[in-house]
Amino acid sequence: MSMKPLEFDRSFGELDQVMSAYAGLAADDTPDRPGQALTSYLRHTWHTRPWALSVAEQQLRTYAENPPGRLRRRLGEFYPVPDIGLPEAEIRQWLLLLADHIRRSVEEGRVSPPVAVPETHWEWHARFPELGQFLGGWFSQDMPDEFDDHDAAVRDYADSADPAVVARLVGEVHELLALGLEEVDYAVGIAELGMEVDPPAPYAPSAWLTVVARGLAGPRAEYV
After folding, report:
1. Is the same domain home to 10 and 103?
2. Nearest Cα to Cα of residue 86 among 124, 42, 37, 53
3. Does 144 fall in a domain?
4. Segments forming the whole domain that contains residue 52
5. What would the pLDDT profile of 37-85 be if each residue is shown by its tens digit?
6. I need a surface site. Which of 15, 73, 131, 211 has the fewest CB within 10 A?
7. CA dihedral in degrees (162, 208, 191, 38; nearest 10)?
8. Same structural domain for residues 97 and 38?
9. Are residues 100 and 136 in the same domain?
């Protein structure tokens, strides 16, 4: 029997956040410096949920020092560390290395400065979660089969989402646009966030996002 949600979160919730940051990236951490994935996790977490760093450090260290035995594995009461390209014999030391980096970051106040552009897939989604839901859910490669056009997809989102969630999306779009990126960087960003179709002609990515945000703005605005 797998663990209940609260039990899982208490034991592995923040550990899972750290592991998620490594999706598609190498475990390139060294004793001297954290790798790209952990750096992204530290940067985002410092600026959004600094209290979670101590939880991550504790969960990483506890898991490394008390790996699940056969009974816990059979019952499903354990966290399966994703394949990050390391031999199984090296996982324990790697987890302890991550815990050491997080502890050092907290104890020495090593706050990573914010960056204009997220540097990993995980960081894009951690920074713009609702925009990722919107683009990945309504603008996947199946969008042309499900909706007549982009406007219809946006209207469907507006009709199905809670107004507070729509407002959160509008805020995230404005935050992304405020970065003042080149169009090629906006194209990369919306692709990282799950958009698998091009914006409608003749709009560039930033112009289309502007139109979407304007149409969705307001307590119960309709996309036009």
Report:
1. yes
2. 37
3. yes
4. 5-107
5. 999 999 999 999 999 999 999 999 999 998 765 545 555 556 778 888 8
6. 73
7. -70
8. yes
9. no
* Contact criterion met (CB below 8 Å) for 41 and 18: yes
Does residue 142 share a domain with residue 100?
no
> How many structural domains does the chain have?
2
Half-sphere exposure of 144 (CA within 13 A, CB side): 6
Cα separation of 155 and 138, whole Å? 10
Contact by Cβ (8 Å): 149, 155: no
Q: Which amino acid is at 2?
A: S
Query: Are the C-beta atoms of 223 and 215 separated by less than 8 Å?
Result: yes
Task: Encode burial over 70-108: b for 16+ CB neighbours within 10 A, e otherwise.
Answer: eeeeeeebbbebeebeeeeeebeebbebbbbbbbebbee
Q: Are both 154 and 207 inside the same structural domain?
A: yes
If asked whether residues 46 and 91 sit together in one domain, one would say: yes
Q: Kindly report the backbone phi and psi dihedral angles of residue 108, in degrees, each rounded to the nearest multiple of 5, phi listed first.
A: -100, 5
53, 110, 115, 143 from 105: Cα distances, Å? 9, 5, 18, 43
Q: Does residue 174 lie in a domain region?
A: yes
**178 band by pLDDT with thresholds 50, 70 and 90:** very high
